[in-house]
Amino acid sequence: MSKQLLEDKGWNPYLAGSLSGIVSVLSVWIAGQFLGASTTFVRSVGLLEQLFSSERVGQMEYFIKTTPKIDWQWMFVVGIFIGALIAAKTSNSFRWEGLPDLWQQRFGPKSKAKRAIFAFSGGAIAMYGARLADG
Amino acid sequence: MKMLAYGMITGIAFGFLLQKGRVLRYDKQLGALLLKDMTIIKFMLSSVLVGMVGVYLLVDFELAKLSIKATVLGGNIVGGLIFGIGWGLLGYCPGTSAGALAEGRWDALWGILGMLAGAAVFAETFSFMKKTVLTWGDFGKITLPAILGINHWIIIVLAIIGGLALLRFFERKGL
């Protein structure tokens, strides 16, 4: 196997984590923005609901407080996708797969439907909790 | 428009580092929840400790202001417990799910759709929660240095010592 096809081991988590800490400090300094992601899901679903009934969305207390719009954080989440894509593609660690290794060890290779149900409900539960905790 | 560009650039840098730190993957997230692989805790704690020092330096030099969220025990505790159940089922966080999808781990897409559904349900039930859970133990916008009445650098140094002790423990146990 040629060396180029091997996935790199990634960076030391202390190094990558510390650098991400510096990124967060620079963001606070330059843009006055603290890093976060979950509000973006609220704004996004508000934008989607607006397509069907903008009147209703306009009257909902939570959407009055958290206006459905594309803001700094929304672009931040899109940026995470792009940044991770660049890092994955340049280190041969991009892998198109629908079942994580650990999941597959436990539930087998034919568990895609089960994974979909668990991931969807897990996402819904996690986001509900995150919003309730204001995190 | 400028803010949108800042958001995008910050996200690219952050997403790049998340992927390089190998913290986006289901196996890594579950590894931490199973107390078997603390890679994501190492990443998060390093980020928090560096961020804490940097942000407070900015505050001391009056270059930035803190953005303090209210401490509401009802919301924080009940919400935190609910979040943990969902995180364990999904194996990705709200922010990292976008990065996991970018790595080709497309099961994250189910998680993203679920998170949109969860956000919609929360928006529907917010008025009820605001009158109940979100009134339990509301302490307002407090910080540890403020309630203890001491300089914030004392707390920062203690947090760094505590954080480094925890990381040293992980390394000794080979986690």
Automatic annotation (TrEMBL), chain A:
Xref: InterPro entries: Sulf_transp_TsuA/YedE
UniProt topology in membrane: Multi-pass membrane protein
Residue intervals passing through the bilayer: 12-32, 72-88, 116-133
Family: Belongs to the TsuA/YedE (TC 9.B.102) family.
Gene Ontology annotations for the cellular component aspect, listed alphabetically: plasma membrane
Keywords, comma-separated and alphabetical: Cell inner membrane, Cell membrane, Membrane, Transmembrane, Transmembrane helix, Transport
Signal peptide: none
Protein name as it appears in the record: Uncharacterized protein
Automatic annotation (TrEMBL), chain B:
Keyword Membrane in annotation: yes
Record field: transmembrane: 41-59, 71-90, 110-129, 150-170
Keywords, ordered alphabetically: Membrane, Transmembrane, Transmembrane helix
Protein's UniProt name: Uncharacterized protein
Source organism of this protein record: Malonomonas rubra DSM 5091
